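Note to self: the last two entries modelled the partners one at a time, which told us nothing about the interface. This time every component goes in together.
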Amino acid sequence: MTTISPQGRTELLRPDGSPVRVLVVDDEQSITELLSMALRYEGWRIRSAGDGQGAVQAAREFRPDAVVLDMMLPDMDGLAVLGRLRRELPDVPVLFLTAKDAVEDRIAGLTAGGDDYVTKPFSLEEVVARLRGLIRRSGAADRRSDSVLVVGDLTLDEDSHEVSRGGDNIHLTATEFELLRFLMRNPRRVLSKAQILDRVWSYDFGGQANVVELYISYLRRKIDAGREPMIHTRRGAGYLIKPAVS
Amino acid sequence: MTTISPQGRTELLRPDGSPVRVLVVDDEQSITELLSMALRYEGWRIRSAGDGQGAVQAAREFRPDAVVLDMMLPDMDGLAVLGRLRRELPDVPVLFLTAKDAVEDRIAGLTAGGDDYVTKPFSLEEVVARLRGLIRRSGAADRRSDSVLVVGDLTLDEDSHEVSRGGDNIHLTATEFELLRFLMRNPRRVLSKAQILDRVWSYDFGGQANVVELYISYLRRKIDAGREPMIHTRRGAGYLIKPAVS
DNA sequence: AGGGTTTCTCAGGGAAATCACAGATTTGTG
DNA sequence: CACAAATCTGTGATTTCCCTGAGAAACCCT
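The predicted structure of the combined assembly is written out below.
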C-alpha cells in the first residue's frame, strides 16, 4: 500500500499496514549509517549488520522484506552469505553493493531472480529507487503501487525512464533523471542544494557545489522551456517543484 | 490463463487461477537456488529437491504441474527417478537438464512424449522459455495462451522461432533470438546489461560485458535497419524495446 | 577435412555526459 | 539606485560510455 504521510511524502507499507523492513549489511560503518539514515527517512524499519554472521542472525530474527548486501565482507565470501540468507529468506529480494570494477566477475547470475545491484560509490537516490523497485515487484508491498510519478502535467516513469510534460516526450540524461525524480518525490517542498547534493550525487563527490545549479538549469531548459515554469528557486533556501497552475 | 501483472509482466496461471507449481531437482544447491529464484520471479510456486528420494517425495506431496530434472543425481540413476516420478505424476511434463556431452540419443527418446531438455550450462531465458512451452502445451495452464510475442509491428514466435517485422521475415541466430525474446517480454522497460547478461547468457559465462553491446548492435542491424528504431539505449542505464510509433 | 556460421575478444573511434570555470544576470537590501 | 550575494548559463576540457569493424576460435553440417 502507498500512503501519503502527514509531511506529504509517499511511503511504502506492507499489505497489513506495517512498515517495510530492510536489512543493511556492510562492514564499513559509515556506509551502514548513511544507508540507515536514508532508508529510515523513507519510512522503513532498518536493521544493520557488519558481517556475514550478523547478517544471517539478523535475517532470522528480523525477517526483513528486503536486504542490502555488500559483496565484500570480512568474514565470509559474499556468495556464501547470500546462500545462507536465501535459506533463511527464500523470497526476499537482495540489492547488491559492489565495487565499480568488480561488476562483471561475480555478479553473473545474481540479478537473475529479480535482484538488482548498484556500484560503489552510489548515490542515495539510486539505492532508494532500486530498493523501492525491488520491494514493489516482490509483492511485499501492495502491487497496485506503480512506477509513475506525476506532478501537474509532468510524468516520470521509473521503469521505462520516460519523462513527459503535457504529452511531449523529454529525453533526460542519467543525472538529470535522478535530480528530477528527487524533486518529484518531494513536490512543493524546498530542497536545499546540500540535500540535493547528498541525495543525487554519489557520497564521495568532491566537486563544486554549483553542479546543482547547473543541472537545475539543464532541467529547466528541457522541462520548463516555453511553458509555465514548474521548477522554482527559493533564494537562499533551495529549489522546489510544483504543478504549474499553482 | 495468461494475466498481465501490474508491472506489465505476463505470467501463467492454472485454469483455476492458482499459480503454476514447478518442482526443481538438482544436486548442486547453487543450481536449485538460481532456478528457484528465476522461476519464482515468473510467478510460479517452486519446490526443490537435491536427490531422487527427495524428488519422489516432493512429487507426492507437492503435486507439481511440471518438473525440472537433472539427469545426474547422486543416489539414483536419472532414468530410475524419472520412472518413479512418472508413476506419481503420469501427465506432468519434465524438462531434463543434461551435461553437454551426455548421450543425446537416450534423451531424444525420452523427449518423444512431449518432454524437453536443456544442456548445462544453460541460460535462464532458455529454461524459462522451455518450461513455459511445456506447461502451455500440457494444458496445465489455459491453452488459449499462445506463443507469439508482439511489440509494434515486430513479432516473435516462441514455438517456431520465427521473427518478422512489418511482414518481412528476419533470420536470427540463437543468441540474437534469446536476447530479442527477453527484450520483448519486457517491453518499455529498461534492462541493464547485467540483467541481460544474467538472463540471456549461460550462468557460467565469464566473458566481457560488452557482448551485450555487440548483440544489441547485431539485432539493430537486422531489426531496425532502415526503419524507425525500436531498440533504444538509455545511456548509463541499459536498453529497452518499444513500438516505433512511441 | 573443409567451408560456412556463430560466438566472442579486442581495440579504435566517436558521441554523449559530466563538470570546472568564469562572466552574465537576477534578487534582495540599504 | 547602487551594491553584494546568490544564482544562472555559455564554453570547453575531460571522462565515461557505447558502437562497431576485424579477426580468432568454436561449432556445425556435409
